[in-house]
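User: Hi! I have a protein structure encoded as tokens and I'd like to know what sequence might fold into it. I'm fairly new to this, so please keep things simple.
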């Protein structure tokens, strides 16, 4: 392996075939999450930080004037938000908790390879 490139070196004893599994995990600080498809469709992100998702969701709520005019702590869900949150109204204070099931860590990229003896 050349010093000019990054790489991975696998050493094995003997001359037997070896099955190798290599996993690549997304690392970001702050953590990025994969958005559930319904949420991704209205926000336009498939991968984002929790803060970005909350900010985009608030922007969606403001643009569509979904905050209740009489009780500013309530959000009147439109058809898109009803599909995601499964309710007609929700309290602003519960928004972060409701995102919990809609965001998940991205799955790693996994490569499988068989090393053969020549």
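Assistant: Happy to help. Inverse folding works backwards from shape to sequence: for each of the 118 positions I chose a residue that suits the local structure. Here it is:
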């Amino acid at each position: 392996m050349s010093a000019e490139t990054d790489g991975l070196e696998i050493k094995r004893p003997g001359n037997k075939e070896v099955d190798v599994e290599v996993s690549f995990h997304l690392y970001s600080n702050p953590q990025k999450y994969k958005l559930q498809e319904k949420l991704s469709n209205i926000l336009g992100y498939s991968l984002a930080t929790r803060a970005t998702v909350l900010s985009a969701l608030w922007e969606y709520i403001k643009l569509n004037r979904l905050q209740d005019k009489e009780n500013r702590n309530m959000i009147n869900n439109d058809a898109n938000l009803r599909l995601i949150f499964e309710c007609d109204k929700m309290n602003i204070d519960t928004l972060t908790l409701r995102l919990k099931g809609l965001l998940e860590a991205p799955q790693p990229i996994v490569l499988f390879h068989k090393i053969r003896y020549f």
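A useful reference point when you look it over: The chain has a mean pLDDT of 89. Feel free to ask if any position seems puzzling.
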